[in-house]
Amino acid sequence: MHLIIFSSVLTPRIKYIFNFIFKEILKTEIEFTGNAEYFAQSKQVKISYGEKALGDELFFKSSPILFSNKLDDINIKTTLFGEYQVPFPVENSLFPFDVFAASFFIVTRYEEYLHQKKTDEDFEAKKSYQFKWKILERPIIDEWAMLIKNMIRKKHPEFKFYEKRFINQPSINFNITPNIPDGFLGRTKFLFSSVFNKENNFLSSKFDQLTGIGVSSEAVLSDLNLVLEKKQTDPIFFINFPNVPDDYIKANGISKNLSSKNVGLLRPCASDKEKIDEIKTGLAKLKKILPDQINVSSQQLEILKFPICYLNLLNSGITTDYSMGYPNRAGFRAGTCTPFNWYDLQLEKVTPLLVYSYCLNDTTLQHLSNGTIFNSIKEYVDTVKFVNGYFLSNWQLRSLSDHLKYKKLKLAFIEMNNYAGN
Predict the structure, then answer these.
(1) Cβ atoms within 10 A of the Cβ of 422, count?
(2) Which residues neighbour 76 within 8 Å (Cβ) at sequence distance 6 or greater?
(3) Cis peptide before 307, with omega less than 30 degrees from 0?
(4) Local structure of residue 114 (DSSP, 8 states)
(5) Contacts of 18 by beta carbon, 8 Å cutoff, 6+ apart
(6) Which string of b and e fits 131-149 if b means at least 16 CB within 10 Å?
(7) Would the pTM count as exceeding 0.85?
(8) How many CA atoms lie within 13 Å of 141's alpha carbon, on the beta-carbon side?
């Protein structure tokens, strides 16, 4: 038995969001039809989406956005749903709002496309509708999906859903420091480029070492592997390479420590001026130190702009991305803790890029007290566990070192993995 979904018009947007909610979040099979007679005769569990119900099926009233194929300005109206606001209010429906339109609007980052059509200013968390509606700190689409699931089970107790499981996967990022070449001429050329090339992290790394802030990436990785093995935690690592020739990059210790890990490229799309060739150069450097890497992943922790950044990733052969989040604020930027394929609103199609959305970043925790940090982590873990989603958090490798400055963050990381488990 599966779900059969009726809509008089089956647009790409409708198929995308119904597939995401029912197949990816709720883990059940669905069938689409625009044939009312076939729908009426079907013995499957029925759901209709449109202006009015066809019979006694589960009926969700629609709003116009999913029937459009344009990126139009929308006059957003809201209604109260529990203790928070929701968009696209409707009447005579199972929900007092169009839950599928609301989910599509949030997960596609529709408002960010509109924002970038009007201004070059960065899109911050406090500008988002989720922040205004007080739902930023919840994987709200997953929560709505659970409500739909309960409605189906109430009407059809015999219907079975496949079970999902909670997954805790931290991401850990660091910069590789280049080595100074031998010889006066080579050193002079290298140091000159370090001063004038803002992408080169050599001088900042050396400054950190002089001030006592710097840490050895190889040493931290080695210690970290022992901690992670005990907790059965499998993080994903992201590396940022300096903009120097390959001969200046020696990463034997790092290669050894990450040989069996999932590793991706950090900061592949720092701006809309980023060239695809530069991304491919970074991937080539990654391949050089870790030749056995198969899946190509990326993470961007600064400004994430749609659609240019994701288009550059796709055109460079990157298949998964962990950039979906706000670097300076906790919360669920895409409203979900379930991985999803990016839907490009300019081309109106589903892309092969699989997006993982993080909710916590160590930079948002570092100025909090120990007790506040753990309470915040616990709340987010519990929220994601409730819907059996992916709990994704970001950590700088140096935050997990034994340096006194990062003691609080390292303890938070260990406590997080103790509490979250898998």
Answers:
(1) 13
(2) 87, 88, 129
(3) yes
(4) H
(5) 5, 30, 32, 49, 100
(6) bebebbbbbbbbbbbbebb
(7) yes
(8) 31
Q: Are 288 and 246 in contact (CB under 8 A)?
A: yes
What is the rounded CA–CA span in Å between residue 239 and residue 193?
21
CA angle 344, 348, 353 (to 5 degrees): 35
242-260: burial string, b at 16+ Cβ within 10 Å, e else: bbbeeebbebeebbebbee
**C-alpha to C-alpha distance for 20 and 148, rounded to whole angstroms:** 13
Q: How far apart are CA 274 and CA 61, in angstroms?
A: 43
> What confidence category does residue 307 fall into, taking pLDDT thresholds of 50, 70 and 90?
confident
The structure tokens listed for 70 are 């344009």
Give dist(CA 370, CA 407) in Å, integer: 10
Q: SS3 string of 379-422?
A: HHHHHHHHCCCEEEEEEEHHHHCCCHHHHHHHHHHHHHHHHHCC
Q: How far apart are the first and last CA of the chain?
A: 31
| Residue-wise pLDDT tens digits, 183-220 | 555 555 555 555 555 444 544 544 444 344 457 888 89
From 301, 291, 283, 231, select the one nearest 258 (Cα to Cα).
291
Q: CA-CA distances (angstroms) from residue 37 to 6, 42, 164?
A: 10, 9, 34
